[in-house]
Amino acid sequence: MAGQWMMILIGVSLWTTCSAAPTECHFNSQALCEYEGKHYLLGQSWMEKGCIQCTCLHPFGVGCCETVQQPVDFPPWCQVRVESVTCKVILVLTSDPRLPCIPGDENNVDPSHGDMNVKLAG
């Protein structure tokens, strides 16, 4: 009976940790509740590199979830950039990553070909 409650606790902990961005999660029963020299107690969370949020489920292990949901449908001249500090996902132009890439019907021309948004009189 105690084992069932622990599995429920683990499931709820992982769900609440990852509910902000439904992405991939994993559980490691061998992992220690430690990151970059800091020890964590049951229920405490920390952010690992790559925008991975982990929760201490000691003595059962560590549960971790990605916090960034990668876009999957964007033009080939755009690329995904994840800001490591804020974990914010933005699309930028492949040809100039300083500029945002805004996909849509009115922005459907590859910017590497110059200004092709010329309207022809008809």
From TrEMBL:
One of its GO terms (molecular function) is cytokine activity. It is found in: Secreted. Residues 1-20 form the signal peptide. Its main location: secreted. One of its GO terms (biological process) is chemotaxis. Keywords: Chemotaxis, Cytokine, Disulfide bond, Inflammatory response, Secreted, Signal. GO terms for cellular component: cytoplasm; extracellular space. It holds the Pfam family PSP94. The keyword Flavoprotein does not apply. Belongs to the beta-microseminoprotein family. Acts as a ligand for C-C chemokine receptor CCR2. Signals through binding and activation of CCR2 and induces a strong chemotactic response and mobilization of intracellular calcium ions. Exhibits a chemotactic activity for monocytes and lymphocytes but not neutrophils. This is Prostate-associated microseminoprotein. It comes from Hemibagrus guttatus.
